[in-house]
Amino acid sequence: HFFSVFLSLVLCLLFYNALQTADTGKAAGKELLCSPDLCELQRQLSIMKDNLGTLQSQLNDTKNQLEKLRSRERTKVAFSAALDRNTGPDAGDNILVYRTVITNIGNAYNNNTGIFTAPVAGVYFFTLFFRAGQENTSTLMLFKNNMAVVTTGDYSVANGADDGGNGVTLQLQQGDQVYVFLAAATHVWGGGNRYTTFSGFLLSQE
Q: Which residues form a coiled coil (predicted)?
């Protein structure tokens, strides 16, 4: 149906242009008069132009929406990193830098700074796990930008070791940063066994 309308429109345009060309020989200032049939044809042609403009606008909107959906499908974010050495106790709070990257899809985690930066707005899930023990306490805090969100820790004991962890779902804007602080005068174990880890992934993009 659309093709038939389009073909009719093209024929009408050709016919209209032919009439205008034929009229160029008339004296200037004389008004081109049209028969009732021709005037009706011109009116219908104008309506068809308007309809085509509306269809083109709708087509552009649909293409833009489709491109947004494709962009969301392409955005994949997931990372896991482990602490490569024992850390603490130190005099002040420190951002834990998990240098051993296990997974870093989307390259949003920086293993030089320990900071995850959200590449897109959306809902993310994060976990932090640790091992510590003996005479030192452990306190780890997950931060969103400059605000502590969740905490996990362990009391000092005479011997042995304990494991702990926490997890949280966060709504982030593009550019928001998430990282883990080790509190002053506390410690965690790291190394080849990868006891102490920081992980996160994108649940849904906004």
A: 45-72
Instruction: Write the class of the CATH domain 78-205.
Output: mainly beta
pLDDT of residue 31: 44
Output the DSSP codes for 46-109: HHHHHHHHHHHHHHHHHHHHHHHHHHHHH---EEEEE--S-B---SS-EE----EEEEEETS-E
135-151 per-position pLDDT tens digit: 788 999 999 999 999 99
Separation of alpha carbons 52 and 6, rounded Å: 9
Which residues fall within 8 angstroms of residue 137, CB to CB, at 6 or more apart?
Answer: 153, 154, 155, 156, 185, 186, 187
